[in-house]
Amino acid sequence: MNAYDLITTQIGNRNNHSSLQTLDTFNTGRFYANADLFPDKLFDLKGQPLRMSLFNYPPYNVWWEVPPGTGNANLDGSEDGKSLFVDGTETLLALEFCKLYNCTLYIVIDEEHTWGTVYDNGTGDGSLGNTYERRSDIGVGGQYSWHQFHFFLDLSAPFTRSSATVMCPKPKQRTGLVLLVLPFSNMMWAAEFVTLFTCIMSLIMSRLASSRLHREHAVVSLPSTWFEVWAISVLQSRTFVLRHLPETIIVVCALISSILIASAYSGELAGMTTVPQYEEPIDTNRQFAERKMKWGAWHHAWVTSLEDASDPIVEYLVHSFELISTESLGTRPYSDDFCYPLETLQYGHFAIGDFLTVEKTSFLRLIRDDFYWGHVVAYQYKTWPLKNLYDMHVLYVVQSGLFKYWETRAVEKYQNWKVQLAIATSRRKDKPMPISLKIDHMSGVFIIWGIGCGISTVVFVAEIFLVRYYRKIGIPVHLEGLS
């Protein structure tokens, strides 16, 4: 009888992965070696290459070149072995996978395009494009599960949660004219002006009615009455000629209410001038949109998760985004309408760029709301044979708690710890302490005083010229109404 050799493809490194291997020989109704005809070839990959596309983005991925043989990964396309040293949470995940299943890690680097994209013509660049065109097996870089790419790529099991947010300028201390308005709410100011207007009109009507009733000839002037009531409201002395009881009642009521209101205002203003008052901080996405703030980053991937949204606030977040290089972000001067991006990681740390320094964060404050959040995954090309094996590896690592340790370790090694602390404590509110009055606190008073002096000087000069002109043409002038 004929004998049949059962052969299979031998899995090995990139140089011998296509060679054949004989499993067993079948003859006369039996196998010679009784070998396992369906061996698990994935348990030992025998140096099979695992190509991973990445870029420098701590704490997810960090890489630098080292002398050949001293690194822990290979540069794809280079003949020098172990010429890269890689680190970071996502990179360690792949390194441990290769240790466990005996594969060789090759790194595909694209610092120019970073995350990259997949174009309509079937090409791509960056981490996503390299994976789509199968220049790499998986692509990493703090990538969320973006729905735009699920037609082209597969997603691994999620291994952490992250959210995108911004640091906005800290609230400014309120001074000047604004400080004079703060003691009362808008409703209280409206009630005060309505009271003044009612008092003025009541006093005018009372004087007109009394003059007709008693058949007296009295000059009732709106400017004069307005100045009288205004003087009462600011507790200024004024000479009143009260001929009748209704006028007296109105003036007395106005005086009593003015004393109470002025006392409350003075007490509140005294507290606000000694204890610093600040503008309302930006804490929510709605406040970000209402104040017409802007933000920017070095790649469009920062707003990929927000695209196709119909919420007006989310639409504003997309429209207010500016594409700016990391160098420009680092040298961008401080402005009141621009916020800087960062990621809040699952275990309390932050993924920040070099553009956020200790000096810059001293003027910034982390907002409370996230722009969005998502699960961080690795992208894989369709039909990658190691997908299920890699997903199980991810789940084992996550449930063991290793990812928390890797995140903390990577942040400590590759991020500025002082900046991390500055960001984490940027929302902390210190108890305000009384301070000495400065010129800024009273600048509003001096502005009002200066405006008053300017207006009165203009009116006084205008009166002089008008009186001279009217007397010159023979028109009598009576100024008693403004006395």
UniProtKB/TrEMBL annotation:
Family the entry assigns: Belongs to the glutamate-gated ion channel (TC 1.A.10.1) family.
Membrane topology: Multi-pass membrane protein
Gene source species: Bradysia odoriphaga
GO molecular function terms noted in the UniProt entry: ligand-gated monoatomic ion channel activity
Top-level taxon of the source organism: Eukaryota
Gene3D superfamilies: Periplasmic binding protein-like II
N-terminal signal peptide: none
Ribonucleoprotein is among the record's keywords: no
Listed GO CC annotations: plasma membrane
Xref: InterPro entries: Insect_Ionotropic_Sensory_Rcpt (IPR052192), Iontro_rcpt_C (IPR001320)
Descriptive protein name: Ionotropic receptor 41b
Cellular localization per UniProt: Cell membrane
Domain called Ionotropic glutamate receptor C-terminal: residue spans: 188-453
Keywords, ordered alphabetically: Cell membrane, Glycoprotein, Membrane, Receptor, Transmembrane, Transmembrane helix
Transmembrane segments: 177-205, 446-467
GO biological process: detection of stimulus involved in sensory perception
